[in-house]
Amino acid sequence: MDTLKIILFILFVVQYCDSANILYVVPFTSKSHYIMLKPIGLELARRGHNVTVITGHRVEKPPPNYHQYMVDEKEIWDVIGGSRPNVFKMVEISAEKFHEDVLWKGGLAFTELTLNSTQIKRLLHEDTKFDLVISEQFFQEALYTLAHKYNAPLVLVTTFGNCMRHNIVARNPLQLATVISEFLDVRDPTSFRARMRNWYFTMYEYVYWRFWYLEEQEKLVRKYLPDLPKPVPSLYDLQKNASLILLNGHFSFDTPAAYLPNVVEIGGVHLTKSDTKLPEDLQKILDNAKHGAVYMNFGSNVRSSELPEEKKRAVLNVFRKLKQTVLWKWEDDNLENKPDNLISYGFGKILEYHDINEETLSEVLHEVLTNDSYRINAKELSARFKDRPMDALETAMFWIEYVIRNKGAHYMKNPALEL
To answer: Where does the signal peptide begin and end (predicted)?
Structure first.
């Protein structure tokens, strides 16, 4: 018995000694972003680290070593300065226009909201030391200066896959002939036209970001963080010198690409552990679906209820003909002319938004539901995705803790950063 107590005491002391004080900066209020990012912070806390989180989403009943500082509650479109647009109408605008009107404008507004939030200002005035700063990489570069403020290594995590502008900054190979920018939608990435489009947009985004957007973020640093230790590195240099970047991708389902040792894929990090069960009413619906079920969901930022009337009518007419039970995430209380087999609860073929009509949607659904190759391919992809030495969350934990153990692990970076 005494031996067991000694072993338990040693294990506790070892865990305590290895624990780090981590600042986790994930303020963006989009639910889809938070679904991926939340498990990282909670798992770090579960492993004994003291985690302080800047967030727009509160975790109920968090562990005692998980401390939440909330961004002031405000709708993202209110932050940007306008009413919420119909996202379906935004498919008409170019990637360049989307950056200018939404991502850059919204990024600046939301970064300022974060730095000006009551609880965040209180945190930044506290006399706290951090061993590591982890920040989401999503148009909020001013927050990277917190790594400088606390003299801690910086880890970046993105809800996207391959990030072109970070590839340029970190001197990671661009591979523009095969790897498409995360904001472009091209049907044949290897065609000459697609490669030229990819090259042009990558250069456009980088130049605009490097020489205009970062300077606007620098203004926020000077306004809200005036007392940083001098000299203050540029936001460009802070991102360039990040110890690690974690990507939401994996070669099993994404385009294989070459990465530096400090660029790591953790796609599926939000799928690793879950104790949640389906709601009883939803589970009952699925159990009673004799012919299977079709699930339709456009995500947290796109509302099905805003579909143009002709698109909505085409979808409903197709669903009405299916023998399968249909579950469709619907945001309004009422859905007119809802077919009996459709329940609104708010690997296949791609059907472009412009091409959606009753005929094309019916063809695609019929193909996917009746051609067994899609089911087989989906199972094969699932097996490939799961066949890895560590699951995605364990991979993220290993490399984050590796950076902590090796005091930033600067030797993993490309020597070309010094050129």
So the answer is: 1-19
Question: Which of 253, 254, 266, 299 lies closest to 43, judged by CA?
Answer: 266
Residue pLDDT, tens place only, 237-281? 999 999 999 999 999 888 889 999 999 999 999 886 666 678 888
Is 325 part of any domain?
yes
In a domain, 346, yes or no: yes
Tell me the HSE value of 101 on the side-chain side, using a 13 A CA sphere. 12
| Together in a domain, 337 and 212 | no
Domain of residue 176, residue span: 18-272+391-418
Give the contacts of 18 (CB within 8 A, at least 6 positions apart). Answer: 48
Measured between alpha carbons, how far is 363 from 223 in angstroms, rounded to an integer? 56
Considering only residues 14 and 136, tell me which one the structure prediction assigns the higher pLDDT.
Answer: 136
Residue 305 falls inside a structural domain: yes
Verify that 97 and 240 share a domain, yes or no: yes
Order of all β-strands in the sheet with 154-157: 66-70, 50-55, 21-26, 132-136, 154-157, 244-247, 263-265
Say how many domains are in the chain: 2
Q: Are residues 184 and 309 in the same domain?
A: no
CA angle (54 as vertex; 31, 20 as ends), nearest 5: 120
Global pTM reads 0.84
- Asked if residue 364 is part of any domain, the answer here is yes
46-101 pLDDT tens trace: 999 999 999 999 999 999 999 999 999 877 667 666 666 666 666 677 888 888 88
User: Which one-letter DSSP state was computed for residue 179?
Assistant: P
CA distance 337 to 7: 66
pLDDT of residue 309: 81
Q: DSSP labels for 215-250?
A: HHHHHHHHHH-TTPPSSPPPHHHHHHT-SEEEES--
CATH label of the domain that carries residue 199: 3.40.50.2000
What is the reported pLDDT for 314? Answer: 84
Tokens of 212: 């205009």
Residues 6+ apart with CB under 8 A from 130: 21, 22, 23, 52, 146, 150, 152
Q: Is the pLDDT of residue 35 over 80?
A: yes
